[in-house]
């Protein structure tokens, strides 16, 4: 084992250039993949925070009167977790409107009839996902006195569709870069193997087992994968730190959008995957060579 | 322990070995002589399984070489110590590493390996060159390293192809004496060489003379 490690390191040292190229290729692939993951993790988190609940307006039909209010509240409460519920009568709504549109009050004064509906403003408790909110909203809408419910479903739905499309593209890209990295690693191992063909033949003749012969190549693959992963993530982290400090300075004052780096779990997963990739590339090429 | 029965080897249409039958007992000292191209190396290569395509049967300790599984192969080879005619030292490894490789492949402990390798290097007078790379050594020095590598694992069978070919007669005798020590410890030794003079008067053993792939004579030397 110590011996294999030593031999792998000697080999990496003697094939510095080749190994460097491989590690850089892996790290670039890992970087691209990580950028996607970074984006998804952040976008996902932001969407979650929009999704999970928040304010919604329930517009009621014209025949509604305040006597119905307690019963309606009870019905809505029975449907799901509602944090608060505030009744806004159409008179109050018009008042608010008048206040906000102070200059146009003349126009509003000419109105003979209040065109606004009575409404309930509710705050929906957090759900695990958007689906939960959607179901609740649909159930509320099904109550006969309810005319409509507004919770940003239109644009959020659109956004989610777009996000899904983006995600699929992201997965495809990740797969593509994974294959590239795999191909490069496999190729490096193959070159390393042929550059040491003589050594391998001699080792066989002096009674080395196949495992003993192959172990250094596997170690080399693992080291390449691991270093590639660490380097790729390191570069991404550096970029992230640079960019995010820039964003905080210029945008933080008026936009609250907090981009976080990949979670520890994700970082571990990426490094593990890239190490696995190194091993797998090695496995494939040795399998082909020893066929 | 080594038994060849009607072994023939063909390269293309040309026979390099013709119907060789031979019995070698454990602990014997066998000298394979004959002119260049007689088939000495070919015979040894068949024994150490560098070449498994041949006609006839070869049994080593009852194992049939034509039927040996690839997983058993390393185990069998570890019982051999081989001095290759062209040395086959690994150019990227130092003298020390070339020799220690055999013990590492056999899974020996590092402390044991260190002791053993240095001991063998000392006995062939190469301890000062432990860190040198093979290509920086003279032919004779490389040959001595090749011999050291062959014996370091204390193999039960030593197959030496021209182990003294690049040495002056004094060094050659030293190497032979060195191999004799392993012979005394019980190893079976096969030496292929055309230098019959060197062997005469020094070694008690059997001389098998090959010519054009056939055994032309077998005699006991004293
Ligand atoms: N790989 C090969 N391909 C074709 N012919 C070969 C091969 N190896 C050996 N031969 C032929 O087999 C014959 C025996 O060769 P071998 O190497 O066994 O001779 P040798 O007795 O060891 O000679 P030397 O004393 O020169 O080492 C020679 O005629 C040689 O040309
Ligand atoms: Mg020869």
Q: In terms of topology, how is this protein built?
A:
The complex is a heterodimer of chains A (291) and B (222).
Chain A: H1 2-14, H2 16-51, E1 54-60, H3 69-79, E2 82-88, H4 90-100, H5 105-109, E3 119-124, H6 130-141, E4 146-150, H7 153-195, H8 197-205, H9 210-251, H10 264-289
Antiparallel strand pairs in A: 1-3, 1-4, 2-3
Helix pairs in contact in A: 1-2, 1-9, 2-7, 2-9, 7-9, 7-10, 9-10
Chain B: E1 2-11, E2 14-24, E3 29-33, H1 40-47, E4 55-60, E5 63-64, H2 73-77, E6 80-83, H3 95-105, H4 110-123, H5 139-151, E7 157-161, H6 169-184, E8 188-192, H7 196-199, E9 205-211, E10 214-221
Parallel strand pairs in B: 3-8, 3-9, 6-7, 7-8
Antiparallel strand pairs in B: 1-2, 1-4, 4-5, 9-10
The structure holds adenosine-5'-triphosphate (ATP) and magnesium ion.
Short description:
Chain A is of the alpha+beta class and 291 residues long. Chain A has ten helices and four strands, in the order H-H-E-H-E-H-H-E-H-E-H-H-H-H. In chain A, 71% of the residues lie in helices and 9% in strands.
Oligomer: heterodimer
Q: Span from first to last CA of chain B? A: 23 Å
Shape annotation of chain B:
globular
Round the mean pLDDT of chain B to the nearest integer and report it: 90
Structural class per helix/strand content of chain A? alpha+beta
Low-confidence stretches of chain B: none
Description:
The complex is a heterodimer of chains A (291) and B (222). In chain A, 71% of the residues lie in helices and 9% in strands. Chain A has 291 residues and is an alpha+beta fold. Chain A has 2 domains: 2-49 and 164-289, no CATH class; 55-150, Alpha-Beta Plaits (2-Layer Sandwich), CATH 3.30.70. The longest helix of chain A has 43 residues, at 153-195. The mean pLDDT of chain A is 82. In chain B, strand 4 (55-60) and strand 5 (63-64) form a beta hairpin. In chain B, the strands form 2 sheets. Chain B has a 6-stranded mixed beta sheet with strand order 6-7-8-3-9-10, sandwiched between helices. A 4-stranded antiparallel beta sheet of chain B has the order 2-1-4-5, with helices on one face. Chain B has helices at 40-47, 73-77, 95-105, 110-123, 139-151, 169-184, 196-199; strands at residues 2-11, 14-24, 29-33, 55-60, 63-64, 80-83, 157-161, 188-192, 205-211, 214-221. Chain B is globular. Chain B is 32% helix and 28% strand. The mean pLDDT of chain B is 90. Classes of the chains: A alpha+beta (291), B alpha/beta (222). The A-B interface holds A 2-3, 10, 14, 196, 198-199, 202-210, 212 and B 48, 50, 70, 74-80, 82, 84, 88-93, 101-102, 104-106, 110, 149, 153. The structure holds adenosine-5'-triphosphate and magnesium ion (MG). The site of magnesium ion (MG) has 4 residues of chain B, from helix 1.
